[in-house]
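=== Structure Prediction Worksheet ===
Name of assembly: unnamed complex
Input type: mixed (protein and possibly other molecules)
Chain count: four
Listed entries:
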Amino acid sequence: MRIIDGKAQNVKIAYIGGGSRGWAWNLMSDLATCPDMSGDVYLYDIDQDAAEDNRIIGNKYNDAEGTISQWNYFVGKTPKEALTGADFVVISILPGTFDEMESDIHAPEEYGIYQSVGDSSGPGGVVRAMRCIPMFEEIAGYIRDYCPTAWVINYTNPMTLCVRTLYRTFPQIRAFGCCHEVFGTQKLLMNCAKEKLGIEIEKRSLIKVNPVGVNHFTWLTRATYQNQDLFPLYRELAEEHRETGCTKWLDSNWMNNCFRCSHKVKFDLFLRYGSIAAAGDRHLAEFVDGDWYLKSPEHARNWGFSLTSIQWRRGSLEERLQKSRDLRSGALPITLKQSGEEGVAQMRAILGLGDPLVTNVNIPNVGQIPNLPLGAVVETNAVFSSNGVTPVMAGPIPKEIHSLIGRICAEQELVSEGVAERDLTKIFAAFAGDPLVTCGVEDARALFKKMVLNTKKYLTDYDLSTL
Amino acid sequence: MRIIDGKAQNVKIAYIGGGSRGWAWNLMSDLATCPDMSGDVYLYDIDQDAAEDNRIIGNKYNDAEGTISQWNYFVGKTPKEALTGADFVVISILPGTFDEMESDIHAPEEYGIYQSVGDSSGPGGVVRAMRCIPMFEEIAGYIRDYCPTAWVINYTNPMTLCVRTLYRTFPQIRAFGCCHEVFGTQKLLMNCAKEKLGIEIEKRSLIKVNPVGVNHFTWLTRATYQNQDLFPLYRELAEEHRETGCTKWLDSNWMNNCFRCSHKVKFDLFLRYGSIAAAGDRHLAEFVDGDWYLKSPEHARNWGFSLTSIQWRRGSLEERLQKSRDLRSGALPITLKQSGEEGVAQMRAILGLGDPLVTNVNIPNVGQIPNLPLGAVVETNAVFSSNGVTPVMAGPIPKEIHSLIGRICAEQELVSEGVAERDLTKIFAAFAGDPLVTCGVEDARALFKKMVLNTKKYLTDYDLSTL
Amino acid sequence: MRIIDGKAQNVKIAYIGGGSRGWAWNLMSDLATCPDMSGDVYLYDIDQDAAEDNRIIGNKYNDAEGTISQWNYFVGKTPKEALTGADFVVISILPGTFDEMESDIHAPEEYGIYQSVGDSSGPGGVVRAMRCIPMFEEIAGYIRDYCPTAWVINYTNPMTLCVRTLYRTFPQIRAFGCCHEVFGTQKLLMNCAKEKLGIEIEKRSLIKVNPVGVNHFTWLTRATYQNQDLFPLYRELAEEHRETGCTKWLDSNWMNNCFRCSHKVKFDLFLRYGSIAAAGDRHLAEFVDGDWYLKSPEHARNWGFSLTSIQWRRGSLEERLQKSRDLRSGALPITLKQSGEEGVAQMRAILGLGDPLVTNVNIPNVGQIPNLPLGAVVETNAVFSSNGVTPVMAGPIPKEIHSLIGRICAEQELVSEGVAERDLTKIFAAFAGDPLVTCGVEDARALFKKMVLNTKKYLTDYDLSTL
Amino acid sequence: MRIIDGKAQNVKIAYIGGGSRGWAWNLMSDLATCPDMSGDVYLYDIDQDAAEDNRIIGNKYNDAEGTISQWNYFVGKTPKEALTGADFVVISILPGTFDEMESDIHAPEEYGIYQSVGDSSGPGGVVRAMRCIPMFEEIAGYIRDYCPTAWVINYTNPMTLCVRTLYRTFPQIRAFGCCHEVFGTQKLLMNCAKEKLGIEIEKRSLIKVNPVGVNHFTWLTRATYQNQDLFPLYRELAEEHRETGCTKWLDSNWMNNCFRCSHKVKFDLFLRYGSIAAAGDRHLAEFVDGDWYLKSPEHARNWGFSLTSIQWRRGSLEERLQKSRDLRSGALPITLKQSGEEGVAQMRAILGLGDPLVTNVNIPNVGQIPNLPLGAVVETNAVFSSNGVTPVMAGPIPKEIHSLIGRICAEQELVSEGVAERDLTKIFAAFAGDPLVTCGVEDARALFKKMVLNTKKYLTDYDLSTL
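=== Predicted Assembly ===
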């Protein structure tokens, strides 16, 4: 890579999981419209056909209307080929198949445990981590060997544990994890400010927030627009809609029925704790006692959100596979649109192209949240600039929510260590202590065994005989 | 006070709650047999008749067989009279009456929440704290005004929050909290070593342990006798008795049916987490998810322990009241016996009489447990010597149990702040998040309201209208 | 104040020390050219005539060519009048007169101690702090009483101790200290990059740096431009010019003979320690052993810098007084020019007008530098946005310079406490330990006494009898 | 080893540097009179003849009058033989010969730098560390390989850096460093209490102190006897003797002219800083600015202490060599006397024989001194018991002396890292910043080069070409 007259040329991006149907196209679109970067994208995927599809699709973006930046797409046949010389690495993989995910999400229902997502926390999140962490150990090893100074952006869940694994395996790695959940709350605040103050705010990033916590259980301790503290407005909103939820601003473009929520959980948590829980209700509900919002599908529905079933995911994938075929064949023309993700903006900022960017990110705690453990991966704002990615001092978790967040963070640290050591006792200790596991110790043990066996194809280096 | 030839004369001890039927007599006995201290004990109690009873009883100890140290007992009619000039202050009070305690313990049963003790944690512990903390604010104020350099020993529960309140109100106070729960585990280890190694250990204090945690939820991360690591022996014991419990060494002198336990909870926790939970099972069960060991009285019984009902407590008090009358009248003669408590030994050590004493104590965290919040009251070993009470570096809570303990510690910090500010929102946030409150948010709110109203006689400076 | 359509109206700025001849005009110029703020500036000064002069001059700015923003200037006759309702407070005062400053700078010469500035550290800095800190206690009290939520920008030296005092007196204050010394090093790096890489960099702020340390003894641990690490270039530069210094890029507009330096000290420190000392050599030399660069005026000259004498300062003031008269009378027309200071840009960013600003600032350490004491005022980058001023995690001071900086920081903490308590023993402990005080304990005591007595007019609430 | 009926049998002690003429005999005497340990002592020394001398002498102790414990002495011909199976390792070596030490101590005099000891700090301490640290890296490696769970007691100087190296090389090591300097101050306090209070205190260990700092620059923040705070008495003493020093209690048994001091430095430091500097004046003077107490030999003499010259050390060694010959031949009979050292008492306590022992020790900082860097080796009290060696929470260094101690601690961390990396730039950065190096940078560089070359025989794995 070189930067000439403010434009970065020959940037090499390696995309692990580059056969993705969805995220990959977002990235292609964002790259095509980036004014000051161009170069090569190497797609690596264990499904090489999928990577090949995306190679063909990616190259079509160069001819799309509105494209201002040329990127050459390649299939990286080996990690070595994909990663060597990379300036940036994007990781977005599915750890296992929908079969394992079906067990993650639905097996606990037998014990009265319902999960709305099942990929970050809860019994499903723990078992997914058992599969996923060894994969990230491998990826981190490749990065150490082939592109140790590359910047690594992870989108895979469980976000916290994926990023934690990258650092645990290769401490010098320059990795961070990105998640758009906070953006939704900024949009909610934007609408709230518009309604209450009558002002039109141009874009969500003008709402300045201070996120603290762990991914998908991130809370805002401050939110402002210009000289306006938005917390009093938000309190009004929450009080008005605590019973009914607030659906008036739902953006059906990015939310479908299955991801939709009415913010009742968010409002309830705000009125109880005084900080703004920043992820969507489906995520939030999974980090607190299962009896609060997830006793049953009906209970969730009363709280204004739905459970995302594996059946829905399978259907959605079918649609996306069809879209992939159509994009490849040309039946569906390439169209550019901004994804709303910040990955490309972050790359630009790291190269010093344009102003520093301040946004939320998942990286190890070096003190940005003084009352969470050092080394644990936390979510706060960070400054992206040519000096790298520097977290801001987000400050301590407020006392009201320290117990909630600290508990999750400690559980994740235990899962991280337990999986790193392939130690089922430690992993079960975390599993049984998860807030969603409301079924008692004996049942938890049975459930754990069942779920682990369901995913055992991916657990070849564990000793499962002690289950 | 003065120390002459290694003997402390004119020591003044103030006893807040000095009308106690039980603890007070233990203290009297220990003082009477202390070889190198003598002086005055001022009994202060809101029940002055009870204090007067104990004054009479106390003075009888001077004539008991085996008494080697003379102490004059007085009733302190006001806090000022009791405290002025005190070298030591002992606090052991009942916050409220058995009527309030009945609500603390039994009101939650309507929502399927059972408590084995109900005085430290759980819904009962939180509501008891609402009554108790204001009393300790008052006591701390008296100490600040009348004897700011006195050493203050607290025995009242909720231990953590009582000691926290003393320091919050008067940060220069020299206070600590004592609890004998760890002693029981030392005895268990002593018996275990005897069985497994065939060695006779003279006294429980020769078992060296490293406690970490919060009161009644204290864990041992090391336990040794001479050059012997006791953890492998304890693991054997736990594995042998995980199903049946271990009752063979029950000491019926100090345990009656109601306090008895078979260590099944302790063993289960050890096998899951690798550290030794050091309190009795009745306490331990209250700090973890209610579904684990406390789903119902039967469930508890299956785990080898019983719930201490208020009915039992009322009966026990009746017996102790009778004993008080008999001691006062002389119908029951005064007999000396070692209480097994360490209060008097601690006083001696603080005065530099004899060797330094290393034992467990509850004091604010100044770093002795690096991964719990600074300022929170924690339980670790400390050195008692003429240089004061200095905690040892107990080290971090092991990852396996960090989530369990950190959660409780954060909850207690929130209760402490919530009650200090008389802020029902904060208190309810803690209440609803307690591991025993397994009933969902809406029910938790109803239960909280009910329990608070049951104890409202003691909550005169709260604004209860927002309940 | 209100913000309408992205413009802040009716902003109130209070200027403590508003009679200044120099800084005040810089601020007026920057305000006049600020596109989106307007309002009132209240000038408060113990020299009310000087404030009146500036009021007249300030109002002339509204008619100057190029002015795009209207500001009304007033004399605030009392602190109350100046501060009540202020949105921003600027503090730039001279603590005492040039008579006291003469003693600060020159009295130590009798003992072989030479100071190049004498206002931040060294014997002069300590004694100046004795005068200055009580003034800042008073100012902090006014802010607490009249405008507790105002943002407070300090420019007065000793910077660290002034900001420390504001927070010690009124912990909720929203204050920070600004200093342009780091900017000079960014310019040096800009020139260096131009020479070595042949690239033209538009402005110094595009050089991204990570400052750590305390004011005037701030070091850069990273410096980059786009994807370019500037440390290797800087090492080349330092090695080339270690003997001769580097004067080729001296900007005579902002440096005159007396402030000029050739960066020999900076280069020497870099080659010894591996981090870039970021202040000018005159400042840097005062924070290390006096024998290193300040044995004598000749020694300093050999190191490529001069001592700023009080005589020069008196002359400079004369010129500025004349300029003041001419500006007031109109003999000298008002001209706008950018001051190079960032105060106004910081105000805009705090109001959320425009993008977040990342720049260096002096605020209490909340962990942004983990290996300096919490609470001490440190200099690092911070994000200015509508969410306030949030320091970034600058990271630990590198081991190589930890001893140098840690020593200064601890000394300043001791001065801060010593002056707050008016405790001459503590202050002398700091004085005698200062790196410039190379004269032995006995001489240090004599010197301290002399210097304190020279400034005693301002030390009315100290007990000087124990000197 | 096994413990039967409270007696440890077959204890194996490895003594690295076991050819010592002095310390070795102290240890032999203390072991011979230890009631409850017996076993084998393996003497390892690069001077095998010296080890053989001590083997013969050691075995004679078994027949000495008063011996109650049998120990068999062996020469360990290799580290492997000496260390394998060891329960305890004692390290007391001389890094290099008196020729190198002569340069360490006297070479700096050419630049006006005088050192009273020259083995811990100052230019001599730094260069000695350059020789010594590689030796300790080697020793730590042997311990890791041959006896990883042994307890390791170091007596070698520079104490801090030796212990630091053991932990840096083998983090799991169970090592600590012992030093008797604090004992002398306890004796001084004992005499002071006797004079001022008229009480006879049986032994120095009854004076309870709280040491903080780094070895040889340790300070007491509290000192008590029974209920008596000794600081006011000590202040009286210091004020009475600030001019004259206090020599009345000099114990000529353990002090000869060369080690003698009159405590004037200690008193001066107390009156300036309010804490009691606990090492002897010869050591203390080396940790502060050279201009304070060490401008010249006369200056030191005025402050009541002498410089220990290499000439004196050579003479002393001659005497000890003669003594060795006489002990070996039997010309001099073996006599038992208590050394005053605590090594054997510490071993007993670690084995759980007898009560826990609370005494000062040098180990890595895990928070016992919160305002010194974690990992640096610090001196505080610790509890020795069968649970190991646990530091107490000594608390933060007082503000008054934080700058003094923090500076030294940071310098030592830099030397440790610099030598570990064989990085002359880092080592020189520490050297030039040492408080005794008062000669300016250029001279410091020349001196460093000279001293390093003088010791180059021991620096075979450094690249000295860059000097």
